[in-house]
Design brief:
With 184 residues, this protein is an alpha+beta fold. The protein has four helices and 14 strands.
């Protein structure tokens, strides 16, 4: 990617031209670099993705693992393109060859030290405003997952520890055992 100091904001079209490493997300027109994930991060992402992928066999929803671009409509603040760790889309009209255009139904972010603030604040608000129905924030340091379920324009938060199971709201019938997800 070539970022010009004179250009303050970037667009979705600019983002499409950025190939290779390092990877960036675009939030309100500003690029944010993405650090390589840790081994533990990838273990947790893989375990969650595997269970959701197997659950969705013969189901109309599709699940994707990062890197997978989610383009949230442009606003006065600028374009936003995010790469959630896990994304579930149930409306095939939102999918194209580049990723998802519009709010996915279900997003999971596994926290990393370099992205935790964005995941818990900036992305939280973007997902809320754009109508993501279910958002899970996974903390590998505390072995906890906070679910955020959209109801009447607000997220209702529920924390779960490794001794719990979680039932998905969007994917009715999906239950994840957190002891398995967080196993060493």
């Amino acid at each position: 990617m070539s970022v010009s100091p004179s250009q303050e904001k970037y667009t979705y079209e600019d983002y499409l031209q950025w190939n290779g490493e390092p990877r960036y997300e675009l939030i309100d027109g500003l690029p944010y670099g993405m650090a390589a994930p840790t081994r533990r991060h990838q273990q947790i992402v893989g375990r969650i993705f595997n269970q959701i992928f197997n659950f969705l066999n013969h189901h109309p929803c599709e699940v994707y693992v990062a890197p997978f671009s989610v383009y949230l409509e442009s606003s006065e603040a600028g374009d936003t393109v995010l790469e959630p760790d896990i994304t579930v889309i149930c409306d095939p009209n939102k999918l194209d060859e580049r990723g998802c255009k519009g709010a996915p139904d279900f997003i999971i972010e596994v926290l990393s030290p370099s992205t935790a603030r964005n995941d818990q604040l900036v992305k939280f608000n973007k997902y809320l405003k754009t109508g993501v129905q279910e958002y899970w924030i996974v903390n590998p340091e505390t072995n906890m997952i906070q679910t955020c379920l959209l109801n009447e324009g607000k997220y209702f938060l529920t924390p779960y520890g490794e001794e719990n199971t979680i039932n998905s709201f969007v994917l009715e019938g999906l239950t994840l055992d957190l002891a398995t997800i967080f196993a060493s």
